[in-house]
UniProtKB/TrEMBL annotation:
SMART domains: UAS
Source organism phylogeny: Eukaryota, Fungi, Dikarya, Basidiomycota, Ustilaginomycotina
InterPro entries for this protein: Thioredoxin-like_sf, UAS, UBX_domain-protein
Biased composition (Basic and acidic residues): 193-204
Example GO biological process: ERAD pathway
UAS domain ranges (all copies): 3-117
Species whose genome carries this gene: Tilletia laevis
Region described as Disordered: 182-204
MF term (GO), any: ubiquitin binding
GO cellular component, one term: endoplasmic reticulum
Protein name: UAS domain-containing protein
Length: 204
């Protein structure tokens, strides 16, 4: 058999992966396995290496973080994600965080501060049965047919808003620099005029 190919895994801590997903507006795939669980081994060797799933998770809008719960950090992540059966996969991404609305007229002005939210969770035998290939295809179809179309418009708007704010900051900085140069030039002209007048006065 040929060498198995895995999706590119993020090298770093879980918190770093979350931060990267926020900064780069990616969908973060959290993969947790248990070395003591036979389904986890099948998932790692077959489901996770299925070409259809690898292709999707290798796209630039995805970030994959994985760990086994025998490791301290992965165990803590399992607790955070409330993962109780393995293998476990969750997809998270920035979503608007809505606060309670004080009145019906506040709907458009409700808080929309982005925060990481769980988009979907998958665990246990559903990730390896009826066969790993079928499980991988179902996961791939879930991502391409449902999850990405649902989350991508918001991430695109968020990216456009970030770009707009960055552009505005750059423009303000450019305008401030131009104003500062003009002010310095004005000061220099006033100083030169005074010095010239002083010299004329001394000559007279």
């Amino acid at each position: 058999p040929g060498r198995r190919t895995y999706p590119p895994l993020f090298v770093g801590s879980y918190s770093q992966a979350c931060q990267r997903a926020k900064e780069e507006l990616k969908v973060l795939a959290i993969i947790l396995t248990s070395i003591d669980n036979p389904h986890s081994d099948i998932f790692r060797r077959q489901t996770l290496t299925d070409p259809s799933l690898v292709e999707v998770l290798s796209r630039p809008d995805f970030l994959v973080w994985a760990g086994d719960i025998r490791e301290r950090e992965a165990w803590q992540v399992a607790d955070i994600c409330d993962a109780t059966s393995f293998p476990f996969v969750a997809f998270v991404s920035l979503q608007p965080s809505r606060t309670s609305r004080s009145s019906s007229s506040s709907a458009s002005s409700s808080s929309m501060t982005p925060r990481l939210a769980v988009l979907s969770r998958h665990s246990g035998t559903s990730l390896v049965k009826p066969t790993p290939a079928v499980a991988a295809r179902q996961l791939q179809e879930h991502l391409t047919g449902l999850l990405v179309p649902r989350v991508q418009p918001y991430l695109a708007r968020l990216g456009a808003e970030r770009a707009r704010l960055t552009s505005e900051r750059a423009l303000r900085a450019k305008q401030d620099a131009a104003y500062e140069r003009a002010a310095q030039a004005d000061v220099a002209r006033v100083r030169a005029r005074r010095e010239a007048e002083q010299r004329r006065g001394e000559e007279e």
